[in-house]
Amino acid sequence: KYLTVDAPMVVDYQNGTVSVEVHSSVNWEIGSIYNDNIISISQTSGGPGTTTIDVTYSQNTSYEDKYISFAVQEVGTYMRYTVDITQTPNLNNVVVMSGIVKWDNGGTLPGGRMLITGTKDKIYDITYINQYTGDYKIYVPKGISAIVEIQANILYGDDAVYRENLNFAGSATITKNFSIPYRTTPLSEISEE
Question: What is the tens place of the pLDDT at every residue in 159-172?
């Protein structure tokens, strides 16, 4: 028995329709739909062979990736294939910042994540830092000044270990590597002198 799906990995921010091929030796159906930007799916069930279905989705008006995600599953069983298509934000409205985050001793951050926040703690985007390589990619609205906060699991879970104010008025892409002073105490535990 087999059930596989061929779908593009990435689509742009505009609304549209993407064709997805279901390859199956069994009867299948669309199971869970994991987000609200899917407007319609042209065919919700099928049988053995190759079937092309069209998935219509709405525009991504946010400043971060959205996902077109749904499950194709064998009828009456748990055999399923989850389709995850990344829908990027409008790249004319954002700055794409990427790079590597590591401790200054070369180690990677346990459970690391990065937040971009503005005034009144408005969160623009959150991304997880690859725990093995330190790689990250995050989108920020163009033309703002914001605080980059890097967190790691030190004492309480998402502990702030580094903060920096950055201006995102310039280019469409920024490569920024962070070498953070190694610490076992979160910023909230360090007294201000």
Answer: 778 889 988 877 78
d(CA 38, CA 108): 36
**Distance between CA 131 and CA 152 in Å, rounded?**
10
Report how far residue 110's alpha carbon sits from residue 183's, in angstroms, rounded to the nearest whole number: 12
pTM (2 d.p.)? 0.74
Coil vs helix vs strand at 188: helix
Helices in 133-193 by DSSP H: which ranges?
A: none
Amino acid identity for residue 23 in this structure: H
* Cα–chain center distance at 184: 28
DSSP 192: P
Q: Which residues contact 84 (CB under 8 A, 6 or more apart)?
A: 67, 68, 69
pLDDT in tens, 105-160: 988 887 788 888 876 667 888 888 888 899 999 988 888 888 898 888 766 666 77
How many other C-beta atoms lie within 10 A of the C-beta of residue 66?
Answer: 21
- SS3 letters across 60-72: CCCCCCEEEEEEE
Q: Which residues pair with 140 in a beta bridge?
A: 95
Q: 97-126: string of b/e by CB count within 10 Å (b at 16+)? A: beebbbbeeeebbeebbbbbbeeeeeebbe
